[in-house]
Amino acid sequence: MAIFMFNNIYNFLYLLGLQTLRLLKKFGKRLKEVLLRPLKAITTLAFTAIIVIDKFTLNTFHEVTADVKSLIASTKKVFSTVNADKKHRLHKLPKYFSQMWRLYKRVFVYAGNIVLPIVSFIIMLNVIFAWQGKTFALELNYNGKVIGYVKSESVYKQAKKQAEERLQISTAESENDEEDTQELIGNAEYSLKTVKLSKISDADAICESLIENSNCEITNACGVYIDNNFLCAVKNETDALAIFDNILSVYEDGDENSAVSFVEDINYVQGLYPDNENTVWDAERLSDKLNTKKSEARYYTVEAGDSVSKIADKCSVSSAKIFALNPELNENIHVGQKILIEGEVNFVQVQITKTETHTETIKHTTVKVNTDSLYVGDSKTVVKGVDGEQLVTELVTYIDGVKVSSKEVSRVTTKEPVEEKIQVGTKKNTFSGYGNYNYSYSGAKFCWPGVGATIISSRYGKRALNGWHNGIDLCRPGGSKGAPVVAAESGKVIYAGYEGMGGNTIRIDHGNGLVTMYCHLKTGSISVKPGQYVTRGQQIAQIGDTGYVTGAHLHFEVRVNGNRVNPAPYLGIS
In Å, what is the CA distance from 437 to each residue of 426, 442, 455? Predict the structure, then answer.
């Protein structure tokens, strides 16, 4: 049985192998047809292209080559004939050349098509190399002498202006200033030339040439320019540098994080200058000039009704600048006080830029969470909030000691703020019946004025028996007389005494037109007096039965701008 099974498996595998081999042969034959078809097409196209090229290009080359060989042979023959007949060779040469042109025209044309582009290219290269490094420029001729070359007329005009500014200094105190200047600097003649780039001069170089060829006595010195305005010239540049460095050294404090420089742009220009005392200064004269003032300090005398902001508007300056110029100044100014409005301005101002750090407070946030463990209006601080801190780094600029600007560079939190969490009561209280009540809650506008007086015997509004009730009456279960009365909010006592139907009465002013009133107080229990400041929840008296009453209770009123209003919302009840 096993042998029969193995024979069947063997036969199956044999037939499968034969069938697979047959299919592979068919696939290979088909693949060969697919690949060879485009290859044959490409080969045919390439062969056709070669034939076309040979027909229209190489064929011409072959024909021309053959004509060249023939031309060479004919030329040799002509020269041999000419040498044999030297007498008539000059007469026969034109005829020979004419015959060669007719016979071998194609050779000459073919040669021209090759030679002429090559010759043109060579000529072009020669032109490029000949003009390389050259450009068109204006040649300046001044007083019969070529003083240089410039790119445009504007460069010359700039140079002339610079030269005139220098030379005007030498005639600044003369009566005929303009006439002298015109005589010293005339107009140059200029013409268009081609020169090398290295020969073109800038305005400064032409300025030197104009001065050198002028009719003015000149000397080589170092010009000092402040904000591009000429101040003077000194013989020795080192002396000028030392004077400016001495001014800066006064403000240097050795701090590596600060940079000291001049506000003005100081430049030193070595060159030719008029040799006179108005132009060339010694070091002492330059130092004296630099230590003068451009303008003096300006003060304002405070008048009645003035404030810092009003003074700033009057004097067209900012309040920030006034405070910067007057570090000890605050809003409490008085008549006759002198305030610095504009500081004195030095001839050259020194700018100090330094890195400064200061600490800023990060205010903590507050989160309120409702809880039914407290009555409505009650609250309890679970986590006390703590402010955080940040270290702020700024790049601050001072000019002559006055802070003029600051730019924040970085801000790093050094102490994280702690969030304050407060529980707010949601448990309702009807204020009727018995039970204790915590008067010191902070959820409502006011705290409860009668300690333990949780019964409201009469509300604000219309009453059936005796008309309108202007306040709210509070009673304590088990007897009200003697129960503490506390200030509903912090404020100033404006009345404490006996007042008609209200009996012993206290009125407290809480600011912004808000006043509370406490009536029918126990005789001898008032513990505050007019003008005294009290705090929220502070005991001020006891509940009594003075005035017009039927029994001991606290009559509590709230007035806004003199008008009586319902106290209930201020106490957190409806």
Answer: 14, 13, 10
Distance (Å, whole) CA 214 – CA 105:
71
Question: Distance (Å, rounded) from C-alpha 134 to C-alpha 204?
Answer: 22
- Gyration radius of the chain over CA positions: 56
More confident residue, 187 or 485: 485
Q: Which string of DSSP letters, residue by residue, matches 269-319?
A: EEEEEE-STTTEE-HHHHHHHHTSEEE--EEEE--TT--HHHHHHHHT--H
Amino acid letter for position 549: V
State the Cα–Cα distance between residues 88 and 256, nearest whole angstrom. Answer: 103
One-letter amino acid of 356: E
Going by C-alpha positions, the residue among 539, 509, 505 that lies closest to residue 522 is 505
Distances (CA, A) of 322 to 64, 267, 417: 100, 33, 35
| Other Cβ atoms closer than 10 A to 222 | 20
Enumerate the H helices of 326-430 as residue ranges.
none
Can you give 96-164 as a three-state secondary structure string?
A: HHHHHHHHCHHHHHHHHHHHHHHHHHHHHHHHHHHHCCEEEEEEEEECCEEEEEECCHHHHHHHHHHHH
192-229 per-position pLDDT tens digit:
877 777 788 888 888 887 777 776 777 888 888 988 88
Residue count of the chain, please give it: 574
Neighbours of 410 (CB within 10 A): 11
Give burial (CB, 10 Å; 0-12/13-18/19+) of 184.
Answer: buried
Q: What is the pLDDT of residues 414-454, one digit of tens each?
A: 999 999 998 887 766 444 333 333 334 445 678 889 988 88
Q: CA-CA-CA-CA torsion for 477, 480, 486, 487, nearest 10 degrees?
A: 100
Token pair for 527: 């513990």
Q: Are 377 and 427 in contact (CB under 8 A)?
A: no
Has residue 6 got a pLDDT over 60? no
Mean pLDDT estimate for the chain: 79
In this predicted structure, what is the pLDDT of residue 296?
82
Other beta carbons within 10 angstroms of residue 131's beta carbon come to: 10
pTM: 0.44
Q: What is the DSSP letter of 256?
A: T
Q: How far is CA 137 from the centre of its chain?
A: 44
Kindly indicate the confidence band of residue 180, based on its pLDDT and cuts at 50, 70 and 90. Answer: very low
Distance CA(503)–CA(543), nearest Å, equals 11
Three-state secondary structure call for residue 43: helix
420-427/379-383 β-pairing: antiparallel
Q: Are strands 229-234 and 280-281 parallel, antiparallel or unpaired?
A: parallel
Structure tokens, 307: 């404030």
pLDDT value at 375 more than 70: no
- The mean pLDDT value for 143-151 works out to 81
Q: What is the average pLDDT across 60-77? A: 64
SS3 category, 222:
strand
DSSP string, 54-110: IIIIIHHHHHHHHHHHHHHHHHHHHHHHHHHTGGGHHHHHHHHHHHHHHHSHHHHHH
